[in-house]
Amino acid sequence: MMPAVSSHTGRRAHLAAQMTPGSVALLATAPATARNSDIDYPYRHDSAFYYLTGFTEPDALLVLVAAKGQTPARAILFCRAKHAEREIWEGFRFGPEAARSHVGVDEAYAIDELDARMAQLLADAPAVYYALGHSAALDAQVAQWLKAVRVQARAGIAAPAIAHDLTSMLDAMRVIKDASEQATMLRAATISGQAHARAMRAAAPGVFEYALEAELLYEFRRNGAQAPAYPSIVAAGANACVLHYSANNAQAQDGDLVLIDAGCELDSYASDITRTFPVNGVFSAPQRQLYELVLAAQAAALAAVVPGLPYSGIHDAAVRVLTAGMLDLGLLARDQVGSVEDAIGARAYQAFYMHGTGHFLGLDVHDAGLYRDVAREGKPSRKLASGMALTVEPGIYVRPGAGVPEQFWNIGIRIEDDVIVHDAGARILSGAAPKTIDEIETMMVQA
Ligand code: GLY
Ligand code: MN
Ligand code: MN
Question: Does the beta carbon of 367 sit less than 6 angstroms from any atom of ligand 1?
Fold first, then answer.
C-alpha cells in the first residue's frame, strides 16, 4: 500500500514518476455550469485537479510532462488571464503570473493559449494520460490536439501513440490521506457534529424539517465551511425510511424520530454524518430498542476498522449484529428465516437494512478509490490501511408490512460517523455529534 503523498508538488512529482518518460498528463478542472442567463450554479472545482494543484478557479488545466533522460519533469498550469473588468463583476482571479507561484508550477499561461501550446507540448510524447471518457468536451479537445500534432508528421514529429486513464492513477493516490488532509477532515467533521447538536437543540414537536436544515446550514457557514458536501437529508417520522429523502418540507409530529444526514464541505473536504433523535427529546420504548440495536451494530462495525483486515469486514460485522437483533425483536421470524447464519446467507436483513455500511470519504463524499483488490485472483475486498478515511453508517428502516411488528412501523434510524483508519483502529472524526441515547436526551433537555 502506498503511503500518503503530501503537498500538491509532492503529488505531482509522485504521479509524474509513474508515467512513461517524456509522456504528458492533462488534467482539467470542472467547467462552470450556467443555470440561466447571467447566473451560474455555485462553482465547485474538480476534486482530482484540486488534489494536484489546490487551485479553485474554473477554466484551468494542468499539464505534467514526465522526466526523460536529463530533462526534468515539468508542471504547467493554464488558467484565466487577469481581466480588470471581469474582476469588477466576479472578483479576484490569479492570472498566470501569480498562479505560477501560488500553485508552485514551473510555467503558467493564459487558458486562451491552450490550443496553440498543446501541439508543441504533445509533440514526440510517447503517451498521453487523461481522464478517458469522463468529459466529452475534453475527449474532443484531446482529439483536436492530437490532430494538430499529426499534421507535423512530415517534419518528423510523432503524436502520442498510447492514451492511459489518469483517473485510476489519481484515485489510488487519493485513498490514503496525509496529515494535512486528516486535519482538514477533522475540522469539517467537528463543524458538522456541532451542527447536528444544534439541530437537536432546536427540535421540538411541530418543527418543520426545513427549519432544522436551516440550523445545520447556519452552523456550517458561521464556522467557515463553504457549502454542504451533499444535499442534507432531514427526515421526520416515516420520511426517515426514504433513503435519499430530499424534500425536507414536512412537519415533525410529537413522537417522531428525526433522521438527519448532513455534512459540510470545508476547504474542499467532505464530512458526512447521520444522527437520529426523538423530536420531543425522549426515545419511546420501541425507538430505544431499535436505536440500541443500530448503535451496537455500529460499535461492531467500528471495531472491524483495523489495518490489514478486509474492507468488507465492516459491513459483515454490522450485518451480523443487525440480523441477530432483527430475530430477537421479531422483525425476522426464526421459523421463516432460521438461524442468524441462515438469515445472513439469505440476506433476509435486506428487508430492513438495504444499503452498505460506508464508503471512502475525502475530497468527494463518496470518495475515489477501489473497494476490491482488482489485481488479485477473484478480486477480494481490499485490505484496510492506515490513513484511509471512511464512513461507518449502519441503519434500520421499518416500513409497515404484514408480519412486521406494528410498534416498529415507520421507524428509520441511521448512525453515521467519519473515521480515519489508524494503526490503533478507527479514529472517529465526528465525535462532536451526540450519539448515545443518554447524550442525545441530555443535549435535548438543555435546549
Ligand atoms: N450522505 C450520503 C451517504 O451517507 O452516503
Ligand atoms: Mn455516507
Ligand atoms: Mn450520509
Answer: no
